Structure formats: C-alpha cells, structure tokens
Give the backbone structure.
Amino acid sequence: MAKILVTGAGGQLGRQILHLSNNSNGASSVTTLGVTSAELDITDARSVADAVEPGMVVINCAAYTAVDAAESDEATASKVNADGPENLAIACARVGARLVHVSTDYVFDGTATSPYLPQSPTAPRSAYGRTKLAGEEAVLRVLPSATVVRTAWVYTGTGSDFVSTMLRLERERDTVSVVNDQIGSPTYSRDLASGLLELAASPSSGRPILHLTNTGTASWYELARAVFAGAGADPERVLACSSAEFVRPAPRPSYSVLSADAWTAAGLTPLRPWRAALSDALGEVRAGAR
C-alpha cells in the first residue's frame, strides 16, 4: 500500500483520518490524500474513475447524514449513500484498488437486546438507513473484496455533533432534557479514524462486514451527563425524557450496540472504553478553545 484516498475528507471522520496520517511523525511511508465532497463528488462516476488509482486503498467517508431530511428527500440520500459507493466500488474493481466503506447502525431496526453482529438481519426503519444499506449491498455486490465498517454515535466535540451540542446547551440553558431510552456506544471520531487506518494498513481480513465503536454502552442521557461532568458542570442539570416526548421525522434505533467480536477476531485492535475516549475528546475541545 502506497496511497490512501479519503473521500468526504471535509467531514468529522475524514478530517480525523487526515489529522492522524499527517501527524504520524514520518513513521509511515503511506501517502494519504483527502478530498472533500466539493473536490470529488462520488455520485459522478467519471470523476471517481479518474481519482482511483491501482493499488490504492479508498476509505469512503462521504455520506448524506441528514437523517431527518432524508425522510423527505430519499432520492438525494440514495444518490450519495447508494449510487456513490457503487461508483467507488466499480472504480476500485476496474484498477485493482481496495475499498473500505463506512456504514451505520441505522441498517438495523434497533429492537435487539444484545449487540448486533455483522451477520445480524438488517431491517432499516428510516430513509437514511435504507440508503446506507443499499450502499453496503452495492459495494459488496460489485467488489466482494471490499470491507464495510459499521459504526455508531460518532462525535468529535466540535461542529454540530451531539457532544458539541451538549457543550453549547450547558452554556446556554439551566437544564436540558435528553432521551434515556436509546442505547448505543458513543464513538470518538479520532479513535474510529485510528481503527480505519489500521484496517487499511492490514491485509484483507476476508470479512466483508466489520463493526467498530468505542466499547461500553450508554443512553443519550448518560452521555449528556458525562459531557456536563467533563465540562465541570453539574450533571443533575441533565433531565431524562423518553423518545415519545422528543419525536423526530426519522425514527431512531432504540438499541444501537454493535459487536466488535469480528473486528478483534480479524487481529485488529479494539477501541477503548467510551468514557476514556470522551475525556480525551473534551480535553481536545478545551485545548482548541485556548
């Protein structure tokens, strides 16, 4: 492997992959090239074909992630989340490149009571989930050697993600209500990026689908309390509510925990517990604010 191409490099995960690659202190001989969605539109098959080179590893972070907006614009979401990954798979197959495609817990219905395995039955309940599942299927149909990596609850602590939103609301409000009946594994984008780079640098595991999140589970309410505590605020200011009290256009999975057993069985490094990752993420946010 001599070159990694990161699509969707303007998003939180793509930026973290580039950050880690650019700060490897010369320890790696791999060249990492990041392209934003404006620089490479993955729905443009010709542009994708021109960008993918023989022997390259493509990490696809480009996606339509506006979960609620997708309910009323599934066609656009499908173009980015299904047609785009298929274009990448076709281009990789044509020149002998490798593809790592990032997907989501939303491909499941969220009714499980134990962690989802890669082979667990899929049953998306939202337009976003349907389009992401279509992308997975297209990638593996065109390029069986590709690897789909599902993740969940990804945050950086900046921008508009959940952790960043909680930090902002802590400053703006006396209290904030957060749902306590949706369970998942909060995942720091930098840890996820590290895992994806390890996968890209490793021989193919032969496993078409892998799951990767930080370990441990929490509700959104528990995560919000941890954010408040990490920011030096009183976590009692976070109040619990139910999903029924906070209705959104797209249904959210009640249970989004993904099993990383296949990841570790492939000889890859599991991610650390989510609380430790959150502590580091909040430290990065504080450092950036100084």
